[in-house]
């Protein structure tokens, strides 16, 4: 009657690029071959690469962030054959644990260069930057953002079932439509259609791999049909998530593990990104799509979270008047950007520069809420920063004392404007 | 050494229209005369009308909602002269309590007709509807939405300092600009410029009242400069809010009390609206605008909230693919609308119709989060519904049992389509 | 269809002694006449006197505490006839709200003189003392314990159903037994048998009143059979409490309202005592005693509490080695006393004297836990103090700065030893 | 600049008895040799045996519990030389993580036989019993207590600094005094004086080992001077604990890891006992004993806990009237025992037997509070059971449905009375 150690269905190698590891893949496609089989009810461990497949290093320069190859992302473990899952079912995934790998107790948060990835505030902070976080048990600290320590609400940035051929076609057409419609007005990519370069189709043979590379959807966006890169920080340990199943065996994939993330993941590479191991148990609800009206995943979070008390959040309001003073119409995106900018202007007072704060808002457990979304023309959102993650008082009545906060990792020779003067 | 009862600086009359009550006003303008003076450090009670000034009745028809006169809103108590406050200061308002009036232990949540007010989902639910809530201590229940009981996270929908003449001018020009730019593409108002009809300037004499009516900003939107109608449900009891001061005495106003509200206040008249009494204490931080970089209000919530535990939220994901299947670009507003629609489709299973659910999502303490806002082209948001507010199990594995849920208040003879068939 | 204001079933007079008010009583007895009738399902308001019946004043001396007449306590509102309740049923009481009276926005916490009431630490702090708290909305502050502000977890200290004649007899015999057995070893009362002096039997005529005075159980202890003076701080708003019913109509009584209390209520008059109003709704479970095995009340707390986050409690450990250094055997009472003493020694560093801290631990929302109760010979308990109730940092690494903390109310001319030197 | 994996300062062998492993010890004594040196500020990992040193097996009989050798307990890792710590200092230990060992993903909870260990309720449940828990990530489940799953509030049962010779002498004399005074009235040990049998002095040579065996204090009780076996479930991840230092290098030891425990750890072997690994970081406060008045350890819990919401606890009241109906005087121990008994009587309704419930109350995250401790003659305590750990509704109004709950592990042929009929 011994209880065996929990079975690993995936192990990863931190010394080799992701595309040399057949147990991972980086495109969504119904034909990516199964990586392993999991029985419903079985609890398994799945190691995951960091989303870039070992491209980022633990050092004090952001050169690797500047030069990151985004054609390669995201490396996902799987897809897994969940025994008995059929199209029309719901796949229940219960997250039992997520942990960094003992052999790599650090993660990173990056700000991509505006020309290579960008982020929510790339208009103001176009240069590349990086913060390395040391991960010790439940705590993250960074030499690049001093005087901060926080507990990770650890989670996978990406989980999803494979699309059917029909769903995939819909994705590709929908996103191509957007590009056609608005790309000419933007100087960064508004969406990404299938890209053969560096597509990785897991265990597929070359013919199939070519097909998948040609048709496979990029993993960058989350999508309503299967979740994917939803970046929901609350999808942490203990969560039960319900996914629609579109193909036999469900072809569930997971990756992009985050030690911690703020709501919005604003710097894009914005969580504390890390390789790690996720422990899950699965279950199938026959006919679950119809039973649950499951057009998009739903979930119930777990009962363990970092837990600061409502009165420990310093909260900034943001409205849909943009940084040029222009009125936008009920735009929650603009409103959230404004809330972030208000937080940056405030936190500067303590000695951090804007890049450091941008990294911090991306990676720390900040709460981003929709507040009012009907009071024309202004949407209102809030961003709440847990005051207890700082080892000094950031409260408005705490003295507002400036300290030497060093700097995050930057590009050698780059001319970062470390403080942006908002109007 | 007796401790006297707390001083009321405003009382209201629930039997007379708002515009017959000089202690309230319904436009933002620097010249609205002071209603009363409050010393910093003094705790005072302020009664407030419901936002419509007694237009809505406790009955089973939505006719009053259909015919509500929106030129009259919102009736705010004040403005108050906070002794010693000067432009450039920050005004700290600590909310000690918010309560319904003992003499009117009920409130309402309304869905405005698309042609008269509208709301977040008016495209699908264009008709007027209403739910009356009985308020008993901390609990709200409604005969129009059976099997639900919840605790109010009670708060004022509107608090703000008066704009200076310059700020007011900026508002009017900014919003007029939007109207000019996009109104022709919308069939409901995208913004509201000053409107003389039914403007109420408090204690102003007729000449001043005419000026205020002509120039005064509408109270509908929250605005970055002074907060106003921000509809932040967490600005509840115990909160300390920091406002910029633009005029001598600050001219602080407050109103639009909500017994409870969901993030987004999606039906516009979407909280449990009520007359009530708010107890506040004020404080001035000299030069606080500069000290705190205070372009918009900031706040620290209180330590008392309804408190359900993270694992008690059933959470729906929404992405920025709209209800026509069209891809929108990183639009959190669309994404939040999608999350709401997913919740509606799900909750229908228990016997509620869409109008009832729309009212419920507006008024119950649901949590709306920005999740991911950088994964082009999809923004992802979540809406979390506390399962403990239902007296039956709404969980995906709780049996999904349909009950007779009666109906909300509707318009006699109107042809509401009570269930909208989303694609 | 108007919703009427909630019906008051009891009002009290704050200007007259409790025994001149027939709607209250101060003994437990099956024959105390009904004060009012309440229908199951009806929500009602019940005003309550403070437990002493207006004996304590808002001033800066503890003379009233020293001379308090404890033969008169506790004045309870009721007993109420819950229509249809019969012996063997369970009575469900849902607390909808508890509030101080608008006409008396203050309460008190007292330390009784060792010879008149005493308390948990009377061996070390034998003198009388008092702190007056101003109650403003959710907040309590005291001029007698500066630099502290907290949110009340407001609750009734006493709720209970009337005992049957048999249960009453059991109580009286059980407690008389204890007196006989151990009183000779104690210099304060170990229990109180029925006492005719100042017994108040509500609306009873003089003959019945005499019987009740002679037989009625004192209200000082909580008792397993009916709850009574259980002083459970978590029996706050939203709680549903299940009581055994022993007599027709249940004869439910309530009183001893507390604005706030620490676990243990250590100074005996140790909560923030106040007159106030409680709003309840009742329900009957037929045959509930057997159905629920209801030998003692059970309850489910409400979902609204002050809520500080686990990492905001400074926690002291106490073991069952007493203040003389003597080993006691698994005595959680000794262990909790030790934890309290450790907290007193620590909080002194900030300038408070022991009487002030004793009052604070009694009245603030401190958490007292049983930790280990099996590791012979030491029981271990903890007392957790929410750090956020102080306006300075009480943490071990926060500088430990001493301030002028003034004093609590004392007895003129008394020689309080304000700091006790523990070994 | 690579971040190395965290250093292990102790590894343990799960296949050998504890006394064959020199990196652990099982007595408190100032002369136990250092096991390893830790620098302040360094984060280290420490593996720990389960408290019995591998005596208990994963099977379906309680024979190993019946025959457990309690002369061997508790095996602690250490003592560690915290570089620079001197008598008079405070040692700060921050718990970064506690985890089960990947190679043994299970733990156990035992009820000791009354004649060999006993427990809080051994009068009623004298036989041995056991439950094995499978540990999967954050979750524990047991085939011996079906329909329950909970999240561990994982912690070390024992942490402490070594006593000085003087402190040790005080312990031995104090506990011998108790034995002399009251042992004759008890049929189980009231305390344990030093015992040479199976004493394990770590790396001590035979002469020193003999001295330690003769003088060393048993590890069973927690003690005020150094904490030790305090069994505080909230001393979990993220906690910062402050210990007095009595000997050079502090000689900090740790062990008795618990995956989860209820307040009281009532069955003595009552947590989910397991081998595991704890990650800590230390710091020294020079002169900290005086600075912090540190007679007993103090701590600040971490910000991560299982978190159920106050309204999800079914709470039982217990008063100090014992199970014979005899009145005890303000005895919180009796009161807590009564609360436990009330919970047992209630939970039986669902099909569990008393031994199963006894195990469950010991090991699940139940909350035991001191409620009132001054209302002569009754102390009142509460035990709160999180309803969300059951996969069915245990609420009083949830139908009270009985199921087949199988059984816990028992002794072959033993005549357990599985239900005790309380009066």
TrEMBL record, chains A, B, C, D:
Protein name per its UniProtKB record: Formamidase
UniProt GO molecular function: hydrolase activity, acting on carbon-nitrogen (but not peptide) bonds, in linear amides
Annotated organism of origin: Candida tropicalis (strain ATCC MYA-3404 / T1) (Yeast)
InterPro entries membership: FmdA_AmdA (IPR004304), FormamaseFmdA (IPR054833)
Lineage, opening ranks: Eukaryota, Fungi, Dikarya, Ascomycota, Saccharomycotina
PANTHER family named among the record's database cross-references: FORMAMIDASE C869.04-RELATED (PTHR31891)
